[in-house]
Amino acid sequence: LKLKPTVRRRALGVALPSAPRSPVFLRLLQDCSVSEGQSISLQRFWPTGEPPPLVMWLHNGQEVSESEDFHLLREENRHTLLIQEVFPEDTGTYSCRAWNQYGEDRTQARLTVEGELRSPVDEAAET
Fold it and tell me: Does the keyword Cell membrane feature in the UniProt annotation (predicted)?
């Protein structure tokens, strides 16, 4: 008796191709505040979708590009925006958009950059 390939793949635990579907974020961005000069990692996301979606990060509606201060990280289907050192001009709405030919999903949150990070030694020197 000869098995069909699809039966053999199931028996070996190999996943069969998924049905096409639009992306959906399984974790959403959360609003956050950070002090000037600190680094921040905007949450990792697991956008589902078949075929795997393309992903874009935006700041106030403008695409975020890889740079010395902004790192766009991807590990399999997990996406992270890492800002090495935040400044007041980094305050705003950050969104992550995922899309494929079947649709798109988006998540967004507000980042607030507060005054300069100060050490207790600096504060004591002023008094």
Answer: no
